[in-house]
Specification:
This protein is an alpha+beta fold. It has three helices and five strands, in the order ββββαβαα.
């Protein structure tokens, strides 16, 4: 059985594919996890460590695009957590994730505010300064 799950953070989007009867392999963009930096690697492994032995029986392949390194790591961990919850159908695992970090399962809806018309290109609320002297 194959399970697909999505995770998003800012502009980074991750799609995880979980396959049963695996050896516990985790690949991101067809590369092993060891190609990531130490801190992001630890961040990505959090949902797997919380799941425990259940994650050792499945293979997870993740495709991630957009955003920066940290946003991609957050999107990957969300996709992995969602896939493991769907695979296990276990309410206790879902509660564990929510108690540890709510953003393992719930998206952060914040986005960049759009620039307003007839203003400078520096930001959404940036206006030209005035001097009356």
């Amino acid at each position: 059985m194959v399970i697909n799950a999505n995770g998003k953070r800012k502009t980074a989007k991750a799609r995880a594919t979980l396959k049963e009867e695996g050896s516990g392999r985790l690949r991101i963009n067809k590369k092993p996890l060891s190609s990531w930096t130490r801190t992001t690697k630890l961040r990505i492994q959090e949902p797997i460590k919380i799941a425990g032995d259940m994650a050792k029986d499945v293979d997870i392949d993740v495709n991630v695009r957009g955003g920066g390194i940290q946003s991609q790591a957050e999107a990957v961990r969300m996709a992995i957590a969602r896939a493991l919850v769907e695979h296990s159908s276990d309410k206790k695992l879902k509660d564990k994730y929510l108690d540890y970090d709510r953003h393992l399962l719930v998206e952060d809806y914040r986005r960049t505010e759009t620039r307003k018309p007839s203003q400078s290109s520096k930001g959404a609320r940036h206006k030209q300064q005035k001097s009356y002297r």
